[in-house]
Design a protein that fits this description.
Length: 176
């Protein structure tokens, strides 16, 4: 924008030269020569091109500001979504851990009752199936929590420090 604005202003150019000129008329002789010049250029008529360039530069700046604002809002949204997802997965993992402990206790109780002859093996088998299902739910909840943490890590910029280190390393593998 400032370059387009400067194109509307007058320009002044100065130049100068100094030197020796050698020629041979009847014998070698030299003359000192110098010159000074000044030029002033005032934009009078450009067909509106300079003003259009100024408006175009202003519009490009506004578009760049809007893109930056959009990128900032998108980054904040990604981080907030990552934090929310991590909190939800953390509570889900805690609930799955409680469910797993209850299933283990139920299986242990059913096994003890079976050993004492109070319950039949079907109750032990059902308690074992419930325990295995609870273990699977616990593993899935912990996996989803790790996925949410990775999503948050990526939203916060990922491993950009190691990416910078890899970019700054020379291609031949030597010391920088």
């Amino acid at each position: 924008r400032s370059a387009a604005l400067r194109s509307l202003l007058p320009t002044l150019a100065l130049s100068g030269a100094w030197g020796w000129q050698v020629y041979r008329e009847s014998e070698w002789d030299s003359i000192e020569s110098w010159s000074v010049a000044a030029a002033l250029s005032v934009p009078i008529f450009g067909g509106g091109q300079r003003h259009a360039t100024l408006r175009q530069a202003g519009a490009a700046r506004t578009a760049a500001e809007l893109q930056l604002d959009s990128a900032l809002r998108s980054a904040v949204q990604e981080v907030e979504a990552g934090l929310t997802s991590q909190a939800e997965q953390r509570s889900r993992a805690a609930a799955a851990a409680v469910q797993l402990q209850v299933a283990r206790d139920a299986w242990q109780l059913a096994l003890d009752q079976y050993r004492r002859g109070v319950a039949d093996y079907l109750q032990v088998s059902n308690a074992l199936a419930t325990l295995l299902s609870a273990e699977l739910s616990d593993i899935q909840a912990r996996r989803d929590l790790l996925g949410a943490r990775l999503q948050l890590h990526q939203a916060l910029g990922g491993a950009w420090i190691t990416d910078l280190d890899a970019l700054s390393a020379p291609a031949d593998g030597g010391a920088p």
